[in-house]
Amino acid sequence: MSGARVLINAPATAVAGEVIEIRTLIAHVMETGHRMGAQGEVIPRNIINRFACRYDGAEVFTADLFPAIAANPFIAFTVVATRSGTLAFEWTDDQGTIETAAHSLIVT
Amino acid sequence: MADATPRPTLAEAIRKFANGREVQTGLLELDVPPLVENGNAVGVTVQIGPGIGVGLHVRRIGLFNEKNPLAEIALFHFGMPVPSPKVATRVRLATTQDVTAVAELSDGSCWESTVHVIVTLAACIEDLGP
Questions:
Q1: How far A14 CA sits from the closest chain B CA (Å)?
Q2: What ipTM score was computed for the predicted complex, to two decimals?
Q3: Which residues of chain B does A21 touch, with a Cβ-Cβ cutoff of 8 Å?
C-alpha cells in the first residue's frame, strides 16, 4: 500500500485550549480474511490494524482497528490545541506497511 | 473462515473491555443510523458531553458489535485529556444487529450506549470483481 492516497482535514490555526476535530482518510482495501476468491480459497486478511497521531512528538490518539472497519478507513477524532506543532499520522497494516502523513497546526 | 471457537458475545466483549468493572448506561452518545441500506460502510460517531465530571477525562472508547465474525470494531485511546471528546469512523455490519460503544474514564468507570441497526444489504456479500 506504499504511497496510498491520504486525506487529512484539520484546521490550520487554532486558539490555545480549543478542541479541534481532525478527520483522516486513507485508501486501503481492509481485506477482512473472511472472504473467498473465485476458486474458493480464502483471501488472506490485510487490514490497517493500528492508527496513531502524534502531536508535537506526544501520542495523543491511537486506534486499534479490526476487520469491521470499512474499506478506505475514515477516522475522525478530537484533540486540544495546546501549542504550535506538527500533527504526525501513522497507519500500520497487517503486512507491516507503514503510511505516514503530517499536518502543521499554528496555535495562537 | 471456519473458526473452531465461536466469537465472544457482545456482553462478553464489553466485560473484557471493562476489565470486570461495572458498566453503566448513559453519558456517551452513540450516533448510528437506525436503518442502513448498505452494511459495507456505516457511519458511527461517539461523543461524550461536557457533563462528564470535574477532573475526569475519557481514556478509552471501544466499539463492539453483536453479530459480525469478530466482536470488536475498534478501540480508541486518548493520550491527552479532551473536554468533550468525539470519534467517528465507518464500519462494516454483516447483518441487522446491536452496536455498542463503551467509554472508560480516567477514574476507571465505564459507560455504554447501544443502538440497534437494521441492515437491508449486508457487508461481506459484495461482488469480488474481476
A1: 15
A2: 0.93
A3: 86
Buried b (16+ CB within 10 A) or exposed e, B87-123: bbbbbbbbebbebbbbbbbeeebbbbbbeebebeebb
**Residue B12 main-chain phi, psi, to 5 deg:** -65, -40
Which residue do the cell numbers 479490526 mark?
A66
Enter the C-alpha cell of residue B111.
459507560
Closest Cα to residue B17, out of B97, B86, B77? B77
B70 closest CB neighbour out of A59, A67, A76 = A67
Nearest-neighbour CA in chain B from A2: distance (Å): 22
The angle at the Cα of A29, spanning A28 to A30, to the nearest 5 degrees, equals: 95
State pLDDT tens for residues A58-102.
Answer: 999 999 999 999 999 999 999 999 999 999 999 999 999 999 999
Whether residue A15 lies within 8 A of chain B, CB to CB, comes out as no
Does residue B11 sit in helix, strand or coil?
Answer: helix
